[in-house]
Design a protein that fits this description.
With about 450 residues, the chain is an alpha/beta fold. The chain has 18 helices and five strands. It has a five-stranded mixed sheet, sandwiched between helices. α3 packs across α4 and α11 crosses α12.
């Protein structure tokens, strides 16, 4: 009988899920960890700074969906003096181990004896069968008791949840109402484990859904939701409202949220305020003085590229030949190795200097480029070719309008989705000559070559 009872007890304990090791020992670490995340520090670096390992930091970030839990966020209010803190619980555990009485512990802490007595009774470690008091376990019990779980609006309102899900993951249909399944596009770029594979869906953004609710349900105040609440339901585990796989319907396909400070901190380290487009001379903007150029790359398959340079006043175009370097495509790609595709920083610098070296000095005044890594050696280019380099603001292609327009014209000869490395220098020169021989409306129907010839005269 006793054997049967012991076996039953073991079976019961096996079915009970262990709450695991109390995490209160990491509370101070996680508060500092999420403050560093909000400043744009990576999860691995933030974990190391707070005394944890890099894999632990990745796990904290992943489990929280990239969003700081409310108890760790900078906006969370600190506990008032009414409640015992972790340091006080550590002092209680030390005093208890020394055999001090409840009254003595209370006097030492400046607390009421009933507060200490209640703490020892409520938050003791009982899994060993005794009432031992440990600070970490006590704080863990206190945190669990302080939780006030509140069901989200999406979890409570079935109609609202179905509305959101239908517009996130609804099927794509034609004008005749026929469902078009579309192909399953797999995410194959770097760090693909951080994103979900894509599929065709209606894919409304959370902001579109939130703004559309008052129009579709003008008289129902319960059918209201902010786009931030939708994002939290998608990214934070345990919310229990929206299915986790719906993150694949977001346009970014991102499974984790990226802190805004980290997105802002993605600027190129070689771009300083002194060489931004706002510091460019005023004479460049009105196109009255020749010698100011705009540049960019057009990309093709197999990491192929062609460089383009356009003079702002005359629209004269130069094409840069950027062939693959020896060793490209041979064997596995070397991590952090040299750029062998042909459009690395060194290759672009050499190509630009070679193209403009025969121009007079007054036609080599400035070059405006986007913040691509191919211009990391701009200082060396300035010293070699004698041309000042300025960088556009991020995501502002209109600041290089002449170059963007020329790149569009070049796609007639170098279509997207083709290997651009098959074109030699003679072919690029022929295409450039063709563009420079076309009359342009903005030049009074002169050709760029004729406009440049007038400048040279």
């Amino acid at each position: 009988m006793d054997t049967h009872k012991r076996a039953s007890d073991r079976s019961t304990r096996a079915k009970m899920r262990s709450p695991g090791r109390p995490k209160v020992a990491h509370r101070a670490q996680q508060v500092l960890f999420w403050r560093l995340i909000e400043k744009g520090v990576s999860s691995e670096a933030a974990a190391v700074q707070v005394g944890a390992s890099a894999p632990v930091g990745s796990r904290w970030f992943r489990e929280a969906g990239g969003m700081p839990p409310s108890q760790y966020s900078s906006s969370a209010q600190s506990l008032s003096g009414r409640y015992l803190c972790f340091e006080e619980r550590e002092e209680i555990a030390l005093c208890r181990a020394q055999g001090l009485s409840v009254s003595a512990i209370a006097r030492k802490l400046g607390r009421a004896a009933s507060t200490v007595s209640r703490e020892l009774r409520r938050n003791a470690a009982t899994r060993s069968g005794s009432f031992e008091y440990r600070a970490t376990t006590a704080q863990w019990h206190a945190n669990r008791a302080a939780r006030r779980p509140k069901a989200t609006r999406l979890a409570l309102n079935e109609t609202l949840r179905q509305y959101v899900e239908d517009r996130l993951s609804g099927q794509v249909t034609g004008s005749d109402g026929v469902v078009v399944a579309g192909p399953e596009v797999r995410w194959t770029k770097r760090r693909s484990v951080r994103r979900q594979h894509r599929k065709w869906a209606s894919a409304w953004s959370p902001e579109q859904i939130a703004r559309r609710l008052p129009l579709d349900f003008p008289d129902d105040p319960l059918m209201r939701m902010s786009h931030e609440a939708i994002y939290q339901s998608l990214f934070i585990q345990g919310r229990g409202a929206l299915r986790r796989e719906l993150v694949a319907c977001l346009r970014s396909g991102r499974a984790l949220r990226v802190p805004s400070a980290r997105r802002k901190g993605k600027g190129r380290p070689f771009v300083s305020d002194e060489i931004m487009i706002s510091e460019r001379p005023a004479e460049v903007a009105d196109r009255a003085v020749p010698g100011h150029w705009e540049g960019d790359l057009i990309l093709g398959l197999k990491s192929s590229a062609i460089g383009t340079l356009v003079e702002r006043k005359t629209r004269f175009t130069l094409l840069l030949h950027l062939p693959p370097m020896p060793g490209h495509g041979v064997g596995p790609r070397q991590k952090n190795g040299p750029a062998l595709a042909g459009h690395g920083a060194e290759a672009v610098r050499v190509a630009i200097a070679k193209s403009i070296q025969d121009l007079p000095e007054y036609l080599r005044k400035s070059l405006t480029w986007d913040q691509g890594a191919e211009m990391a050696q701009h200082e060396k280019l300035k010293s070699e070719a004698g041309i000042d380099v300025y960088f556009c603001d991020p995501k502002s292609p209109w600041q290089r309008g002449s170059n963007e327009n020329t790149n569009g014209l070049l796609r007639q000869y170098f279509p997207k989705g083709t290997d651009l490395s098959v074109h030699g220098e003679d072919e690029l020169e022929a295409v450039a000559h063709t563009l420079n021989s076309r009359p342009r409306k903005t030049l009074g129907w002169k050709t760029p070559a004729e406009a440049l010839e007038d400048v040279l005269r």
